[in-house]
Specification:
heterotrimer; A mainly alpha (about 525); B alpha/beta (about 280); C mainly alpha (about 350); A: about 525 residues; mainly alpha; 3 domains; two-stranded antiparallel sheet; C: mainly alpha; MetI-like fold; 13 helices; about 5% strand; flat
Chain lengths: ~525, ~280, ~350
């Protein structure tokens, strides 16, 4: 009765085996192995970056310890005093430039005549400048001395390290042959400690010199505005002299044996305002200027990209016709394909110059920071980064709008709402969390971007002068990504500089993870609220 | 056939009723389910199921949603292996006296012999011809003449041949819902299984397509043993010989279809078949 | 109301209506500003770059630019004529001038030339280097990535552990490329001692796109309906047969699209190869090696890095502009080609595979 040629019911079978695995298990093992390797590798990346980075803080601790022990910290008090004086001289010079400009532009004087008119002013400046001489001499002598102490300390450390390595491989004789000079910091620092009484005298002399200059009759200046500047100068000098006793006290209190707390090694990175490397005096690894730079560039980029990207997403998703949609979407996807290095090149070749020319227009002189001093600055880089952020923001925001159920829109229309009302009151709120996460991911994309900022941000490692308000955005900055790209090529493996870059990398890594994670969380919540 | 006859009377300690009719005694038991407990992770889905399914007959599993009827069906060809954490915790399922959960059983061989048709028709996005020959090709069959023959026989067997013979090489997705489901049946019988499991095969079909599939089921029982899960009591009444009623993971009653619908032994069964719940 | 055509539902001009269309125009403006910015960037590079890459006479393409190595440009005046020459031509010219002078018994005239590095010759080694980097890294990334995705989606037990791995991979996809560059430099270049080499570049780039490839491939696999797998398994197919015949064919379009986008990303990145694989200048072509193993451990020149070098390390002038724009144009063309093909491919395949 069975018309089908059916084999007997046998459901056990011996399959061919390789190494005790059937073919299917072999395939599974292959895929599993690959997945294992991939996961291990990705884990390794995380581990490696954190491993290399974590050593930094101990090294920085030692770095700061030596800074104190070798007396550099002591001399830096004096150096700071000298630098503040130089800043005052710069103020005078700036005043002179303004005056010359006034003479030549407003009064039509020739440059030679203008200079002649300023002879009294120049004498005044010279006197002011000369007052620092005694201090300068002391700073130079002491600076040379502590530099030498530090160098010797470093050499000793190197030799100790070499000895350790030799001992580790069992070369006892070679290790013993290495001459190690023990440094007694207490003895070495005697000249510094002995300088303290002399310093009080120098300071008194210095202050007297400055006061003498201030007591001179004011040099003749043409306008009330310039005269007011001179008056302000005098106030500044007064404040400067008042600081002297504080410095003296700091020097008296200074104690090279006081240990540097470990927290200082962390805080000098996290809130340190100076990033100074390969210096023959003292290296500083403060991330603040880089972080500020990254943040400023990203803010410029987002300020442009968010309105444009979200606006375009609303337009394409809600207002544009079918044909326009089909044209715009691939175009914007295409923009996202432009490699960042090409954009950076465009910034150097075209945009930087264009912004400079634009900033010189009279009509735009009300914009803070215009005309720009530097072609390559935070603004230039930010504008270019906006072009990188726009496709990300656009695509994700458009997705979010697309996911708003059609029924919401229809219900709103059925109640007689206009298109605009529907968009603003129904669709935008429903898509808001999606749009926020789009903006977050755009931010992540921008802050991690390297080539554009490396080429176009101006690469000046300094915290921009925020007292100028928005004009700070037209100053050159350096960024976290840029510093890695710029300095990685010149570091010694395992050195403090090498590790400091890994710490910056770590920071970027963490920022990226946090942004991504937040974006996902926000979208998830949004899905739940709609679903 | 040639299997040792295991009559229902030899099954020890069968708590729920076993169909007791003249017909059952003449047809040997094919699937023997003994005291099966089944769980998805921590959630118990089947409690102590004992049931014998005779050969060359249509057996229907009925019951409200979540009663475990689909779970039991999927145990019969071990499709539940695909779900993480799902396992038979106790008892045995024997087909032709072979425990299909024995470690030396090859799941692949088992599934070749126990075909399945799903609730939602799932033809591959390939041509009708390729859909039907899929199973045979997997087994290494590449003889064109033989494949052609199987395609025709399977499509005729699934009462689809006349409708699609001129477009065997067009996509299976181009067929209507009912045709797609019959294509899936044709695909299942192409590998010459002994048993065909059907998991609510008509739930997504309109009445006319349903009627065709039911008719087909009637024809198929000449050659195959069919186990069908259905929501539709009329369907169970129309096309099955034996019916098992499940409720909350327990087998409540198992008897001749006529008995279940006309004269149920259990008040719960009666309530369900008369439409008072479920 | 006086007008006969006015009725209850007729449209009337109103302030609200004007605001409506005004706001719509603002959104439209935003859209077109973006497109304009894109056009300006593309246009500038294409127009100025095509002056280098194309020429007015046959064969219309500047073959030398695409087939020669970068050279220095010598610009000088000689006997009232203005010359611009690549370094090897310049050497020949100088020798011939000196020979002439020697023959005429005069002291050899001194050629006062200004040199501009990289401004002559072409970018052939850079193109080759970029292709090598892309091919190698994508091979690694695709094998690892697609296989991992298949494992995670088809084989692995879907528990908390796999969810965690998936989340971690998804998050790693957003890590900046420079961080991967940093890792590659520390790990491969220094720790493994591979130096600046193709190998180091391959692995760095591969690991950079790996999260993207895994995520996208898994997405494509997830999009294949469960019914295909069940249907196949119920017919007695083994797991691998099911994956090969009933899953992969339908997931391939998605995997392909995402991997092409991965290629565009790998080709376009500069930061990760800066310290792992790219040389500013290298005289030999990659296949001019003594031993086969040397091939893997040599640095290469690459297009994106070349753009970085010529745009930041040499002064801007009319001579350097030629190579700057030329390189940028060729590079942009390659990346755009890859991106376009992925967009077209996706649209085609999307239309073909529907279920």
């Amino acid at each position: 009765m069975d018309k089908l040629d059916r084999p007997p019911f046998a459901i056990t079978k011996t399959r061919t085996r390789f190494l005790g695995l059937t073919l299917d298990e072999c395939v599974q093992a292959f895929f599993g192995g690959n997945a294992f390797v991939a996961v291990v590798v990705l884990g390794l990346i995380t581990f490696f970056i954190f491993r290399e980075g974590s050593g930094f803080f101990n090294q920085n601790w030692a770095n700061l310890e030596l800074y104190r022990k070798a007396g550099l910290e002591f001399v830096d008090h004096l150096k700071q005093q000298e630098e503040d004086h130089t800043a005052l001289i710069r103020y005078l010079f700036d005043l002179r430039v303004r005056t010359v400009k006034h003479y030549t532009d407003e009064e039509g004087m020739s440059l030679a005549n203008a200079n002649k008119r300023l002879m009294a002013f120049d004498d005044y400046s010279y006197d002011f400048g000369d007052a620092v001489e005694p201090l300068r001499g002391a700073v130079m002598d002491l600076g040379d001395w502590v530099s030498m102490v530090k160098t010797r300390a470093l050499v000793t450390e190197d030799r100790l390290e070499e000895q350790r390595q030799l001992l580790a491989v069992g070369k006892v004789d070679e290790a013993a042959a290495i001459k190690i000079e023990e440094i007694d910091f207490g003895a070495e620092l005697q000249p510094l400690l002995a300088f303290r009484p002399a310093y009080a005298e120098i300071n008194a002399e210095f202050a007297a010199g400055l006061l003498r200059v201030l007591a001179l009759p004011d040099p003749d200046l043409p306008t009330p505005e310039l005269q007011a500047r001179l008056a302000k100068f005098k106030v500044l000098v007064g404040g400067y002299i008042e600081e002297f006793p504080r410095i003296e006290k700091a020097l008296l209190d200074w104690d090279y044996t006081k240990p540097v707390p470990f927290a200082k090694a962390v805080s000098s990175f996290a809130v340190g305002g100076r990033w100074l490397t390969a210096s023959f005096w003292q290296d500083w690894y403060g991330v603040v200027p880089l972080f500020t730079g990254s943040l400023m560039v990203s803010m410029v980029a987002l300020a442009i990209a968010v309105p444009l990207g979200v606006g375009a997403a609303i337009y394409v998703n809600q207002l544009a016709g079918e044909r326009e949609q089909r044209f715009i979407k691939p175009c914007i996807e295409f923009i996202s394909a432009i490699p960042s290095v090409v954009l950076g090149f465009f910034g150097i070749a075209v945009l930087g110059q264009a912004i400079r020319v634009l900033s010189q227009w009279e009509a735009l002189s009300w914009v803070p920071g215009f005309p720009v001093a530097e072609r390559l600055n935070a603004l230039t880089a930010g504008v270019l980064l906006a072009l990188i952020a726009v496709p990300t923001i656009f695509t994700l925001a458009e997705d979010a709008l697309q996911n708003v159920p059609r029924a919401f829109k229809e219900a709103s229309f059925a109640l007689g709402a206009t298109r605009l009302q529907t968009i603003l009151r129904i669709i935008m709120p429903a898509a808001l969390s999606g749009i926020i996460s789009a903006v977050l991911l755009g931010f992540g994309r921008v802050i991690g971007e390297t080539m554009v900022v490396l080429l176009c941000a101006g690469n000046r490692i300094a915290i921009p002068d925020f007292t100028t308000g928005f004009a700070a955005f037209t100053q050159p900055v350096h960024t976290m990504t840029g510093i890695i790209a710029q300095e990685m090529g010149e570091v010694v493996q395992g050195g403090i500089h090498y590790r400091s870059l890994f710490v910056v990398g770590m920071l970027l890594f963490v920022i990226a993870l946090v942004i991504n994670y937040l974006a996902q969380k926000i979208v998830q919540r949004y899905r739940i609220s709609i679903g | 056939m040639d299997s040792p006859a295991s009559s229902s009377s030899t099954a020890p300690g069968v708590a729920p009723a076993v169909p007791q009719s003249s017909r059952t005694e003449t047809t040997p038991t094919l699937i023997d389910i003994q005291n099966v407990d089944f769980a998805y992770g921590d959630t118990k889905a089947l409690h102590d199921i004992t049931l014998q399914i005779p050969e060359k007959r249509v057996t229907a599993f009925i019951g409200p949603s979540g009663c475990g009827k689909s779970t039991l069906l999927r145990c019969l060809n071990r499709m539940n292996d695909l779900i993480d954490g799902a396992k038979v915790e106790r008892g045995s399922i024997k087909i032709r006296d072979i425990d299909i959960y024995r470690p030396d059983v090859d799941v692949i061989e088992l599934r070749k012999r126990v075909g399945m048709v799903f609730q939602k028709s799932n033809p591959f996005p390939k041509s009708i011809y390729e859909n039907i020959t899929y199973g045979l090709r997997l087994q290494g069959e590449s003889n064109k003449a033989r494949l052609d023959e199987v395609v025709e026989r399977s499509l005729r067997g699934a009462a689809l041949w006349d409708e699609v013979k001129d477009r065997l090489h067009t996509s299976g997705l181009g067929l209507s819902g009912g045709q797609q489901q019959r294509l899936c049946i044709a695909r299942a019988i192409a590998v010459a299984p002994e048993i065909i499991l059907m998991d609510e095969p008509c739930s997504a079909l309109d009445p006319i397509a349903t009627a065709k599939v039911e008719e087909l089921i009637h024809e198929l029982k000449e050659k195959f043993t069919i186990v069908i899960v259905t929501h539709n009591m009329q369907q169970a009444a129309r096309c099955s010989d034996g019916t098992a009623f499940f409720y909350l993971g327990k087998l409540i009653e198992y008897a001749e279809t006529q008995t279940i619908f006309m004269n149920p032994g259990n008040p719960q069964t009666e309530a369900y078949v008369s439409g008072r719940f479920g | 109301m006086s007008d006969q055509s006015q009725h209850l539902f007729s449209s009337r001009p109103s302030a609200r209506r004007r605001a409506e269309s005004g706001v719509a125009w603002i959104f439209r403006l935003a859209t077109y500003i973006i497109l304009l910015a894109g056009v300006v960037v593309f246009g500038d590079i294409v127009i100025k770059g095509s002056r280098t890459v194309f020429q007015s006479e046959f064969p219309f393409i500047n073959v030398a630019f695409l087939t020669e190595a970068p050279k220095s440009l010598y610009v000088f005046e000689h006997e009232g004529e203005h010359y611009e020459m690549a370094d090897d031509d310049f050497r020949d010219f100088r020798e011939s001038v000196e020979a002439q002078a020697l023959a005429a018994g005069e002291p050899a005239p001194e050629l006062k030339a200004k040199t501009y590095v990289y401004s002559a010759g072409g970018i052939f080694p850079n193109i080759v280097g970029t292709i090598l980097l892309v091919v190698g890294s994508m091979t690694i990334a695709l094998v690892l990535g697609v296989a991992s995705a298949i494992y995670l989606n088809e084989y692995a037990k879907q528990g908390a552990w796999v969810r965690f791995i998936r989340l971690a991979i998804l998050n790693l996809a957003g890590v900046p490329s420079i961080v991967f560059g940093l890792f590659g430099f520390g790990m491969f270049v220094i720790f493994f001692g591979w130096n600046v080499s193709l190998m180091a570049g391959w692995f760095t780039l591969a690991f950079m796109v790996l999260p993207v490839v895994i995520t996208a491939s898994e997405e494509s696999l997830k999009a294949v309906p469960m019914g295909f797998r069940e249907g196949s398994l119920a017919l007695g197919a083994t797991k691998w047969q099911t994956i090969r015949k009933a899953v992969l064919p339908y997931a391939t379009p998605g995997i392909l699209t995402s991997s092409i986008l991965g290629i565009a990303r790998v080709a376009g990145e500069t930061a990760p190869i800066m310290f792992t694989a790219a040389y500013v200048v290298r005289d030999k072509l990659p296949w001019q090696v003594e031993q086969a193993m040397d091939f893997f451990f040599q640095g290469v020149m690459a297009l994106p890095y070349h753009i970085y070098v010529v745009s930041s390390k040499i002064p801007q002038n009319e001579y350097s502009e030629r190579v700057q724009y030329g390189t940028a144009f060729v590079f942009l063309a390659i990346v755009a080609l890859i991106a376009t093909s992925s967009i077209i491919l996706r649209n085609r395949l999307r239309a073909r595979y529907r279920w």
